[in-house]
Structures are given as C-alpha cells and as structure tokens.
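## Example record

The block below lists the input lines for one assembly entry, exactly as stored, with component labels intact.
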Amino acid sequence: MSKVIVVTSGKGGVGKTTTSASFAAGLAGRGHRTVVIDFDIGLRNLDLVMGCERRVVYDFVNVINEEATLKQALIRDKTDSNLHILPASQTRDKDAFTREKVGKVIRELRDNFDYIVCDSPAGIEKGALMALFYADEALVVTNPEISSVRDSDRILGMLAAKSLRAIKDYEPIKEHLVVTRYCPTRAETGEMLSLDDIQELLGIELIGVIPESEAVLNASNAGIPVIRDEQSSSGQAYQDMVSRFLGEDVPMRFLEVEKKGFLKRIFGA
Amino acid sequence: MEPARPEGGTAIELKGAVFTLPVLKLRSVELGAIEHELKVHLARGLNFFKHAPLVVDLELVRERADKLDFAALAGSLHDLQLFTVGVRNATPEQAERAVAAGLAVLKGGITRDNELASSEKPVAEELPVATEVSRRRTRIVSQPVRSGQQIYAKGCDLVVLSSVNVGAEVLADGNIHVYGSLRGRAFAGVSEDTTARIFAQAMEPELAAIAGNYQVFDEPAASRLYGKAAQIYLDDEQLVIAPL
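Predicted structure tokens for the full assembly:
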C-alpha cells in the first residue's frame, strides 16, 4: 500500500522543504521507492535543496495540464535510484491545480511508489490545501516559537476538516509533530518554547526533534539533503525520525544541553 | 394599504426558547377539592408559584376527566394567580375541549419527580407538584478546537473534552465546558441566556462572553485564577470568575 505524506506547517521558513528532502531521501535510502513533490508553484525550492535544479525540463504543472507525462517530468536522484523528484513550476501559478487533476497524478504515482511526499507551500491558501488534500499522514513542522506553533495549530485544523479523509469521513490523517531548529540551551533559559510546551499546545505525537545546526544551511547550499550528512546532529536526528516513522522505537537525541568540559567535572554534582 | 413597517423592516421576530414550567398533576377532577388543596399549598408560602404559567397534567385522571370543565378549572386557577397555559396527557376528545377553552395542548417533556410540595406525609389526596424540564441536548467535541476553527452549539450546551486553542472560537446557546485548557474565545448563552456559564479545567481565555457581556484578558497572568480550574458567570452584567 502506498502512502501519501504531506509535509506542512502553515508558517513559512520553518523547514518544510528541508524536512521533505531529508525525509524522502531517508525513506529511499532504506530501499523504499519514494517520490517527493514540490507543491510550491511559483516559488520552487525543492529542486535546489535536492541539487537537481539544472535537470528540470518538465514540471508538475506540465503534467497536470497533460503537456508532459509523469515519466518525462520525474527526475531521478543522482545517487539514489529509489528517489524521484517532481519539481514545481517556477513560471506558472497555482490556478492550474484542481482536485481532479492533482488526484489523477497522485493515483498514477501510487501505482509506482511506496511513499509520496508532498512538500507544501506556506500559508493556508489553495496550494497548501491541495498539498494536504490527498494525504494519509502528515508531518507538521514547527519551530519552538509561539507564532509557528499557532500556525501549525491552524494547519492541524485544516487537516481535520479540509482533507479528502475528512470530507469522506474516512479514518483521519495521522499527524506527526516535527520540531526543527531546536536549541536546547535556549529552551532551557526560556528563550524558546520547550518541547513539553509545544506538545501541550498542539496535542499530537512527536516524531522528531531536529537541532539547530549549521550543517542544514551548508547541505542546502550544496544541494544535498542534510540526512546524508552522517556527521551532523541534524542528519542523525532526521535518520531517527525516519526510523520512528517506519515503526522503530528510537529514543530522542540532542535534547539536552551538552555537558560542559572540565570545569563541570570539577564543580558539578 | 399595508400597515406602516417599524424600523428594522419587520414587526416581529420569531424565536424558539426553552422554559421550565411547573406541572399540576391532577388526581381528582373535582374542582372544589383541587382548589382547596392548592390554597393550602399556596398558604404554606410557595410563592414560587405566584403568577406562574402552569401546565395541567391529566395522566392520572384520563378516564375521569371527560366531564372536567377546562374553562372553569383555568378560571379557578386564575383566581389563585396561576396562569394555565395548557394541558398534557389528554385524550383527543379532552384535547379538543381544552383548545376550545383556550388552552394549548403540550406534547412530551420530561418530568423531574422531586416534589416541591412539602416533606409532610401526604394527606388523602395531596397534589404532588413536579417541575417540567425540557431537555437540552449537549454537543460534545472530542478533538482539540484549533486556531481558526469555530464551533457553535446551537440551542444546547457545548462540552469540549480536549483544549480550545488560541485563535479558536467556541459558542453555545447554553453553557460551555472545557475539560482541557480554554485558551481561545468562548461565548456562552449567545441567544441572550444570562444564566449560562463557562467552565474550564484551565481557564486561560483570550476573551469570554456571556449573553453578549464580554471581557478580554489581555494581561492573563495578572489573574490569580489564570490556568486554574474556574468558572465564569454573569452577575448583574458583570462577568465573575470564580474557582471551581
């Protein structure tokens, strides 16, 4: 059974595209046939983060308008043959989207892939609603600050009301919380919301905490999903998240303030 | 010529409302006995019933009530300053005669069986006085109410088993109960029921309103009940927050 997973947040700039790229690359890296779709028509970024921007010939809108076949538009990842990207159009606008046309593309993808990851645009407009409409599960990406949490709350309401599963009264979308740009020291001093606060406010199960790290920016600039940077804490945290998504029981890491060096050893309890 | 229309376009507004009415359950059809016992009850100071609209229940006297003169009954009740609005549990024939006497025919209703009359041992033919309660249904929401969502419990109470988040709105014609945190906006008694209340396990609303009287909580931490189990009710057009 193929699964459609939307990566969404409401707010912009919280790490949806980074999470989509790493999540899809992580699933593919474990042998699952995976495609990641960029729903951000007009502001496409996913191809950059995935390092395939120079290989985009046809895009999602071309497929929707039947100007190209899916086969022509799908871009295979350079290093992982299990991973494909369906890029957004940079020039068209999202009026091209209709439920029927997007549904037809999703159905065709379901026949060929195990996981279909939908990278949602920010906001709660048509593009975001289209990205979540066919979802079976959702990764809700949140930063540890109040406006991001509130926007995530809004999008959770949309998942529960405006998706196909909601409209048809099927089993509701399974929601997972991903906290990105988490900084333990700042959470400890109260500058950031703590994980407990976020979970209390949103009331959904936590699937991953990605620590703030320079590696994320470096990886984006290099066009490599950060999950492939095995040295970085962010890469490892994304690997853990993929494991949890696949049902493994993995403890949360990178939540504690790192132990101070020798002074702490002398004076610490 | 059409009559002049008042400002606002319409002369009337039709609305539904729920009332609690006292029910007079007859055990005898003899007017004199009924009148006598009622006088005894009223003399005991049951002022609650003064000027009360009353429903006459015929359940126990259906077989015998065919000769009951509804106009005379309503008349003698009126002399005691009780206003008969209708009958219930009437046979079709009795119903017809009640209507002819200017009374309404009521259907259904749930009767609370606590007797308001007295704790004394009932004398020969005591009249138990029960209170009619038309049941309000309750709307129960088990999911969190999230930012941007609005839930209106029309004509009833609202129970939210989870939290009402910031940016969400809950409205009810009756009371609002939140068994998680109330962080959004809550409007109870929206069709002007000033007796409606708001209850929450953790009271942290952005705004609370009862029957249109509202209060914003822009410095929530200043209240000592912030985040605590509390209720909000209306006292003389003032919202009162009290601990639970």
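Residues 207 and 245 of chain A are 7 Å apart (CA to CA). The first strand of chain A starts at residue 3 and ends at 8.
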